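Q: Trace token order:
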Amino acid sequence: MSRPKIAQLSRRGPRYVGLLLRLLLLGGVVHTPTSYGTPDPVLVGAGDIATCDSAADEATAALLDSIAGTIYTTGDNAYPLGTDADFRDCYAPAWGRLKARTLPSAGNHEYYTDAGRPYYDYFGVAAGPRDQGYYSYDLGAWHVVVLNSNIPIDPASAQIQWLRADLASNPTQCTVAYWHHPLFNSGNHGNHPYIRDTWHVLYEFGVDVVINGHDHNYERFAPQDPDGRADPRGIREFIVGTGGGPPYPLKDIQPNSEIHNATTFGVLKFTLHPTSYDWEFIPVPGATFRDQGTGTCVDGPPSPHAPTTSGLSPTTATVGGSDLNLQVNGTYFSKDSVVQWNGVNRPTQFVNSTQLVATIPGSALNTPGTASITVVDPQGQSPSNAQEFTIAEPINDNLLANGGFEADADNNQQSDNWWNNEYVKRHTGVVYSGTASMQHYATNNSGYTISQTANNLTAGTTYTFSGRVNIPPSTPLQGAFDFVLMIKWRDANKQSIRTDTLHVFKQPTEGWQTISARLEAPAGTTNAQVQMVTDVLNAAVYVDELVLRVPTTQTASSSASPVASTASTANQDLATTPAAIFGDGPTPTPAPSITPVASATPESQTVANAATAPNSEPSPTALSMIAGAVDNDANSLAEVVDAAEPIASWLDLGYTVLGGVLLLVVVIQVIGLGYVVRIITKI
């Protein structure tokens, strides 16, 4: 090791040699700094790497052979399913020879096999704790964080709690994080909104660079905040899905995307200086695309922003309700943020930077009308924009067969009037109100649908939907999880006109969550199916008080899209979905090679879009529902008649009194008291 040091000193010239001789003659000791002449560390790699069907992974591995430094991967290391054989036969012959200096992250293809077990077996301790896959390390002056987007990564998850603690205990000026699924992405898979909470944490702590894969292309973004706004103090994101998997086309170019390429294999190299970094995309031989540049690390976390609100859950309540837990969604919430109801501070629970929960007392719900909901930040930021909350008169005309959603009103141990009720059962242990709720589950297949039809609907009428869902944390979520509530509008031939997706649950709910929406029936509507769909075996989902109603006062709607309650990024509301995504009855179980992963990436949407089925003829159950609806209409008419009888009695009395007065006037005229008549007339 001494020879390089001498060579370095020799190149510095006689000045350094003379200084060394003088120090030796004076009896001094020379301490050569360990960093003297040592280059800054290098972090280099890519994602979406090894396939036995192509030599591209061997070509990118050959690039790494000539680049010293630590190697990262951004997931999907071994195709197609991340099995032991895939790692042995596809990854090991190429990138496998670089395993000793590789610190990987997991992709969804790893989790297609036994929740990533072959991945953890292959990389060992380098992959982080087994079944977690998130860890951190230091590289020179930089702190490096590795996350796992295939397991829960919402604000309540163990992973995000760990991330906060890790960043708080490693306050370096420069930080880089890498994992598989990108928040922003112009490629085939599109954006992944469920990652936004993670970005909020990284942004809060001043993280500088994020590296992702998943889409098989290269893309670089300008620094931006978690909501996609350009911000010089924001995070710069790179997508490097160029390790060897077949290229994917670009789709919708996102704001702040500075450069993108969908045809070139290669690796992205970072040189990590103490307060800055250089990047260089190095292509495989024969390719001409390159990208390089320099960035400066953020000096501390960004300045606080004024809070903004984006939605409420629920959005409405009825007069006379009990205390309400109101979820307020938005951005830039702090732990000191307070929700205001018509300018009055309400007790507020901080969930994360995008979600607050306020307690609204029942006394505030006693008068019909609207309330203005804002968020204030005691740190001196301006109040947020306002969201409107509606308090309506109670309505009792539920169009579904089981009013109030008593799952087994006739006590026959079966769910009332729901198609395919072998996947639904009465449950008394998890009940929001009444004596039972519906347990929605499956034991022999995934991707199933149950539905109930509401008949005699009118196009252009605005209907209200509400319901409560409880997905306990104990629900065994193995692989992907989606539980979807939707309404499918249909014409007289039961052909789908439009499907409104009201809510997509991707995680447990921490108790009962209220869903509500106002929906205008599209042109041609005569009936609608309320549908519930899930794609996981043995998932326990409880539903109660599911209601579809006609408001007493029709409100003209400017849009045919639902105005639904909003939720966290893990449990999402979607505006609309194509009408043919879900057919009547169970949808096919997806093949293992395309099974969506735990965090429900757009790949799961691809599977859903493929799972179409034609509408079937009315079943006996459907016919019984129609009969039930007719009975309900008859009962409603009878109630109206009963309510009108007292009014008719008072009208009869009024007619009698009026007739007596007229007779008195005639008598007065007969006896000649005309002036009295004139006085009465003036009155």
Notes: The first strand starts at residue 42 and ends at 46. Residues 1-36, 403-411, 553-569, 573-683 have pLDDT under 50 and may be disordered. The chain is about 20% helix and 25% strand. The two ends are 119 Å apart (CA to CA).
